[in-house]
Amino acid sequence: MSLDKDTVRKIAILARIRVPADALDGLSVELSNIIGWVEQLNEVDTEGVEPMTSVADMDWPRRDDEITDGGRAQDILANATDPEPAPGGKDGGGFFTVPKVVE
Amino acid sequence: MSYLISGESGDWEVVIGLEIHAQIVSQAKLFSGAATAFGAGPNTQVSLVDAAMPGMLPVINEYCVEQAVKTGLGLKAKINLHSVFERKNYFYADLPQGYQISQYAEPIVGEGTVVLDMPDGETRDIGIERLHMEQDAGKSLHDQDPKRTFIDLNRSGVALMEIVSKPDLRSPEEAGIYLRKIRSILRYLGTCDGNMEQGSMRADVNVSVRPAGSDALRTRTEIKNVNSVRFVMQAIEHEAERQVEAYEAGGEVVQETRLFDAAKNETRPMRAKEYAHDYRYFPDPDLLPLVLADEDVERIRKSLPELPDDKKARFVSDYGLSAYDAGVLVAERETADYFETAAKGRDAKQAANWVTGNLFGALNKAGKAIAESPVPPGALGGLLDLMADDTISGRMAKDVFDEMFETGKDPAAIVADKGLEQITDTGEIEAVVARIIAENPDQADDVRSGNDKAIGWFVGQVMKATQGKANPKMVNDLLREKLGG
User: Fold this and answer.
1) What structural domains does chain B harbor?
2) What does the alpha-carbon distance between residue B85 and residue B68 come to, in Å, rounded to a whole number?
3) Which of A10, A68, A97 sits opposite B33 (nearest CB)?
4) End-to-end distance of chain B based on CA atoms, in angstroms?
5) b/e A75-84 (16+ beta carbons within 10 angstroms → b)
6) CA B117/CA B300 separation, integer angstroms
């Protein structure tokens, strides 16, 4: 399978990556090569073989329903640009802010 | 009683399917240890996992899985012992991961059935397509600042169940009854609190129309995030009419996402987002498939409470209630429990009438839920006892009940304090009857000459003379004896 320019443009938009128009040709060749390489796996006959979801045969760790985290809004917001303190003051938490989203 | 929209070209049938998002009742989130409680300060219930910090790994909350299984069993649905979490990819400011962990190709619960009790006493089976678990997103506040949108991630990562119906619903009314029924089942199970005002339950509504009698499905539209039963019904009505008008004007219906505007009473398209529906699902590489053991499912099955349908059947067979009364009483578990306590060892039909009549009326007027009733079920039972042993008349009981509701006092105490005991002493009543007849010879003659209705006037006079305390049946019998009516 090979990817045409339009498909590459669509993938870039979906991934929110800005790709200049003159880079699309090169990228479609590179991505097509990657897909072609992975497609070699299709040569293996997997009829009747269960999908392998992990190389380690392990039990999935699970949590009890207990509150063990939270209460640290200042840590959560530490890297935020332009956070907005909640009206209740510092311990009342605060908001992330982004340019206005209009629906 | 089918719901049809009559257009110029003939009648149109409406086809509706609901996707209900229900927040799972749990202390902590689906994949992190942060709290789920409503109303906390912004971002105070957020872990590094919920904020999608690099390198964080989700670890599933076992209780949330049990809650989903429990719900599946309550919907009489197939439990899939093997299910898979996938990433649903899209960009939005309140979705820090850039994807929602959800289930797609292999959900935890498969097909099931919900029985609707229709107002005409009939039942309707509505198919459940699937139930899957997913994470909620954060909350965007658009109205706090002229230039910025504020983001609170407290909801981010909270466990949701999405319950998808088959397109089996045929009217706004059915959709409303279905939503109420699901809410009732979830509340019985304790897997979702069903609080639509706080957003614990909301619905996406899929609507299409087709000429009556046709079997083919036409293009549907999806109305997003409707948050009350009433709005669901209104949205369907308006959207179905819009589609009929579009077809009859020679136009088409476009598959799109719409919003219901309750203020303007219309649906309108959401701003078209290019590629918005290309979610590129793939299995989440951070998570293994979710594998359940048969024993786990059986253990959960054994823990199920009696559900509304079974309770209704029991109320009909054990208490001799009508299907309608039983349906009203079982809609909320609290009401059913109240009724059973009040009815225990007593006349169940009478208890049902008092609960659905006087109690509901008083609660409604006071704007209270049954759990906040000033009259506890035992006290209502006590009132029924006072009627049963003839201490008070049914008429007097209504006044005593109002007093109980007002003051929270015990019925026996109210009756004793106010001296409301019914007069059942024949001699005492006879004396009053004799006096009233003597004082009103004209009316007495009227009755004697065959005007049976006039006897009611005498009953009223005797009751008035005894401040309503005379036993009405005895008064009636004595008057008939004396006046030969």
Assistant:
1) 4-300 (no CATH), 306-418 (no CATH), 426-483 (1.10.10.410)
2) 14
3) A68
4) 49
5) ebbeebeebb
6) 27
Contact check, Cβ <8 Å, A73/B60: no
Pairwise CA distance, residues B19 & B52, whole Å = 27
In a domain, A10, yes or no: yes
The answer as to whether A9 is a domain residue is yes
Q: How far apart are CA A72 and CA B32, in angstroms?
A: 14
Amino acid at B295: E
pLDDT in tens, B102-160: 999 999 999 999 999 888 878 899 999 999 999 999 999 999 999 999 999 999 999 99
At B64-88, the pLDDT tens digits run: 999 999 999 999 999 999 999 999 9
- Whether residue A94 lies inside any domain: the answer is no
Residue with the two structure tokens 């089942």: B185
**CB of B424 within 8 A of CB of B390?**
yes
The DSSP line for B372-385 is G-SS-HHHHHHHHH
Domain count within chain A: 1
Nearest CA in chain A to B143: A100
Q: Which residues pair with B150 in a beta bridge?
A: A97, B141
Across the interface, do A70 and B44 touch by the CB < 8 Å criterion? yes
Residue A65 and residue B34: Cβ atoms within 8 Å?
no
Residue B270, min C-alpha distance to chain A (Å): 7
Among the listed residues B207, B238, B232, B211, the one whose alpha carbon sits nearest the alpha carbon of residue B221 = B207
Which residue is it, tokens 């299907």? B323
Two structure tokens written together for B246: 């579009």
A-chain residue closest to B159, CA distance: A65
Is residue A63 domain-resident?
no
Report which DSSP code applies to B356. I
- Write the residue in A14, A61, A101 that is nearest to B93 by C-beta: A101
Residues 54-93 of A with CB under 8 A from B: 54, 58, 60-73, 75-77, 82, 84, 86, 88, 91-93
